[in-house]
Amino acid sequence: MKHLALFILFFALNEGFAQDLVRIYGQVTNSQGEALENVNVKVLNSELVSTTNNKGFYVLKAPRSTKLALSFSLTGFVTQLIEVGPGTKEIRKDVILQKSVQQLGEVDVNASKSRPGNMQSINGGLIHNTPTVSGNFESILKTLPGVSSNNELSSQYSVRGGNFDENLIYINDVEIFRPLLVRNGQQEGLSFINPELVGQANFSAGGFESRYGDKLSSVLDVKYLRPDSQQVIISGGLLGWSGTAKLPFRKGYTLFGIREKTNQSILKTQPITGSYQPKFYDIQLYHLSQLSKKLDVAVFADYNLSRFDLIPESRETTFGTINEQYKLKVDYEGQEKDKYESFAGAFTLIYKPSAFTFFKWINSVFDIKEQENFDVEGQYVFDELETGESVSDFGKVRAGRGFGVDYGYARNLLKARIYSTELRAYYQKGRSFWEIGSRLQHDEIKDKLNEYYFTDSAGYTLPYNSNGPLLLSDVVYSNNRTSTQRLSGFVQNTYKLSSSINFSWGLRANYNSYTGELLFSPRISTVYKPNNRNIAWRLSAGVYNQPPFYRELRDFSGNLNPNVKAQKSLHFLAGADYTFSGLGSRLRFSSELYFKKLNNLIPYKIENLRIRYFAGQQAEGYAAGADFSLSGEFVEGLESMFRLSVMKTAEDIDGDYYFKKNANGNSERVEPGYLKRPTDQRVNFSAFFQDKLFNSPTYKVHLTLLYGAALPVGPPKTQRYADVFKIPSYRRADIGFSKNFLEGGSGKRLIFLKKYLESLQAYAEVFNLLNINNTVSYLWIKDVNNNQFAIPNYLTSRQLNFKIIAKFKNR
Q1: At 308, is the secondary structure helix, strand, or coil?
Q2: Is residue 268 part of a domain?
Q3: Does some domain include residue 706?
Q4: Which residues contact 248 (CB under 8 A, 6 or more apart)?
Q5: Are 73 and 182 found together in one domain?
Q6: Which residue from 536, 647, 649, 534 is spatially nearest to 598, judged by alpha carbons?
Q7: d(Cα 736, Cα 239) in Å, to the nearest integer?
Q8: In whole angstroms, what is the distance from residue 199 CA to residue 724 CA?
Q9: Are residues 137 and 53 in the same domain?
Q10: What is the DSSP letter of 31?
């Protein structure tokens, strides 16, 4: 009731905050009078942003009663600031932007806008309006073409048939490394990216350029940019709080962010009841100073701590069909204590000897420590229920199918240190833009694994051994150490063949001391955009080699395979982007067809969120599909997007086979051939839609819909060909309502608040609006007849959330 009262109070606020807006519009051109498209128009010290269309026109609505400062910016042009208002209902401001003679000063930030690669720009500001349980920046990615996820608690995601280990993440050109032991979404804390600090983000679901590293599936390139004014942001809600400071100086700036999250109320809706004590923290600092006109220095530091403590008590799960119902009841003893701690630091020197030459020296270190400790015993009773015609008997126990004890134990500790140094150079000459870089990385990993499980079913331990010692299952005991040197480099050239054709080619090479392989990755892409047309055609092809890091080396027993080689992929992509007018707005339709030929694959299974590799096996495979998306401001000032993805991915494991009896009772050898990969999700749909309440436009609605088709799954401790079962389709709807109390209006309360605040926004959210039981994994048990049953582990149920975000003025 407490949550409901907050929800009602939020919408009962009076209309003293009514909107009173001025319409600001105009055209942006260059000094020759040519219209400029995609100019970023922003009201400083606010979240009001617009972009010019293909004819250079923009429209903004802002509070009428205040004087506003507008910023007009576009790569290659000098940013211009103008003041408007207070005024009448409409103000027209036409702007002429002058070309910048220092175009390479920010090339590391903005060059992606002019590149012909497959990078998609992400509006980072949408993270606040996206109703999400995790609150992580990656939640936005799950609505993008080619991306899929069936776990709202996790920041991990799959891209076009790849797994979680195949995705690259960069922050200001520093490659980010994530935990290796985490196995459940509920154990995950705050992701590395702080949404409040993001200035620009670009994402590629495949066919990305040589400047990015050696992964098979995707790249997320995030930039923390210089703020245009001093800003302090405080937010708090039922799931945590955060504080952010953005401090620009005459010769530099500082960004600082601290976050705390607890999803205790969310986890209480899990199938296992008990005492959940999760605590997640993250502290980040980024500082850039201009030492001279040609030399800048940047320092980045991050500390991330995740603690997950659980004392389980019981669980009760009813499942099956209308004609066949079962119930599992478990009483637990013991506890689980996990800790994931990481420190990251980076030091960057930026040297600009001329307007056409640019150098970057990037140095980074990651220190990661992960501990998993659990000692849990579960005493279970497994029953078959009545499903007959009698209502009074429905749901009663018909027969006992089994009882016993499950026991799990683990004392796992992983330490990883990753050092790297990288030198990059940029050079522009006429229509040609060159990038070249080399990187040296050193990995040190220490991994102590000690875990085992056993099942005692009615006095008989499974697997059963009448004459021998107690047999345990899933025994892993190992002490591994690896030390790997990695050397990589790339060269890339982007050339403007004509006013309508851009072409990019590149070559990447990498070597690592563990496999001893020297690998080359040529990549090309081109964009054709006819003059005065609203369509662009894209083609890309390239080779992507992913040397093993650590998890790919380790088999199910914890042993390392010294013969593992790099996984390889050959990408072919063709796409089109079409911009048109419709529904009173400018809309963008994008489509892309792709095919990925996969070689030297290491087969794997996904158990809860943990990837377990068959390190001694090798496979070849493919992924093919199509992505379609439609985005735009269906409601003025509010961006929405819809996407549909279809995909198929399969693999053929070398030398796998099994025997089965034929119709004559004889055993025959069967070679399975191509198998569905664990990420073979044939259909994926997502929608993020925003609207305003008709009678009260200051109140906004934000709706997220996700659908992912069924995924293949199989029992643990089995080979890949046994994964013939399915996790049901993932269906989820989250809705949020928001209001900025400083938007419009001129009441006494607003005058007081505006004295201290730039904005004050409140959000009320309903997670899992339809209360759908989504399955993330299965608990596999056997009955008295040795028949195996899959008991679903459900994700979170319906939950209310409330949060407030306040942005303070520079006083």
Answers
A1: strand
A2: yes
A3: yes
A4: 226, 227, 228, 229, 230
A5: no
A6: 649
A7: 15
A8: 44
A9: no
A10: T
Distance in angstroms (rounded) separating the CA atoms of residues 489 and 518:
11
Over the range 574-600, which residues count as b (16 or more CB within 10 Å of their CB) and which as e? bbebebeeeeeebbebbbbebebebbb
Q: What's the CA gap between 171 and 164, in Å, rounded?
A: 18
229 pLDDT band (50/70/90 cuts)?
confident
Q: What is the dihedral of CA 392, 396, 399, 403, to 10 degrees?
A: -170
> Does the bond joining 353 to the residue before it have cis omega, within 30 degrees of 0?
no
Choosing from 65, 100, 135, the residue where a domain stops is 100
Task: Please give the structure tokens belonging to residue 731.
Answer: 């269906």
How much is the CA Rg of the chain, to the nearest whole Å?
Answer: 28
- Residue 143 and residue 68 share a domain: no
Indicate whether 230 and 353 sit together in one domain.
yes
How many helices (H) and strands (E) are present in the chain, helices listed first? 4, 47
3-state secondary structure of 474: strand
Give kind and range of the element (H or E) at residue 753. helix 748-756
Domain boundary among 100, 133, 154: 100
Q: Are residues 86 and 190 in the same domain?
A: no
Which 3 state secondary structure label does DSSP give 740? Answer: strand
Q: How far apart are CA 654 and CA 719, in angstroms?
A: 13
Q: Which neighbouring-strand residues pair with 240? A: 237, 261
- Of residues 153, 155, 122, 133, the one with CA closest to residue 734: 133
342 φ, ψ to 5°? -145, 145
Q: Beta strand 667-670 with 658-661: parallel, antiparallel or unpaired?
A: antiparallel
Q: Which two tokens stand for residue 764?
A: 């009320």
Q: What is the pLDDT of residues 521-572, one digit of tens each?
A: 999 999 998 887 889 999 999 999 999 999 999 998 889 998 999 999 999 9
202-206, 501-505, 692-696, range with the lowest pLDDT: 692-696
DSSP 499-545: SSEEEEEEEEEEEETTT--EEEEEEEEEEE--TT-SEEEEEEEEEEE
pLDDT digits (tens, 9 = 90+) for 344-392: 999 999 999 988 898 999 999 999 999 999 999 999 888 888 776 665 6
Maximum Cα–Cα distance across the chain? 93
| Start-end of H helices in 629-675 | none
**565 contacts 515 by C-beta, under 8 angstroms:** yes
Range of the domain at 388: 120-808
How far is it, in rounded angstroms, from Cα 344 to Cα 368?
A: 8
Query: Any residues with CB less than 8 A from the CB of 445 and at least 6 apart, and which?
Result: 414, 415, 416, 417, 480, 481, 482, 483, 550
Q: Is 400 helix (H, G, I), strand (E, B) or coil?
A: strand
Same domain, 382 and 281: yes
pLDDT in tens, 207-223: 999 999 999 999 999 99
Structurally, how many domains does the chain consist of?
Answer: 2
52 domain-assigned: yes
Which residue in 299, 372, 385, 363 sits closest to 341, CA to CA?
A: 372
Helix/strand/coil for 356 = coil
Span 477-495, pLDDT tens digits: 899 999 999 999 999 999 9
Query: How far is it, in rounded angstroms, from Cα 109 to Cα 226?
Result: 11
* Total residue count of the chain as it appears in this document: 811
In a domain, 242, yes or no: yes
Residues 284 and 349 reside in one and the same domain: yes
Mean pLDDT calculated for residue range 257-261? 96
Q: For residues 36 and 154, state if they share a domain.
A: no
Helix (H, G, I), strand (E, B) or coil at 640: strand
Distance CA 528, CA 503 (A): 9
Give 226-293 as a 3 state SS string: CCCCCEEEEEEECCEEEEEEEEEECCEEEEEEEEEECCHHHHCCCCEEEEEEEEEEEEEEEEEEECCC
For residues 686 and 143, is the Cβ–Cβ distance under 8 A? Answer: yes
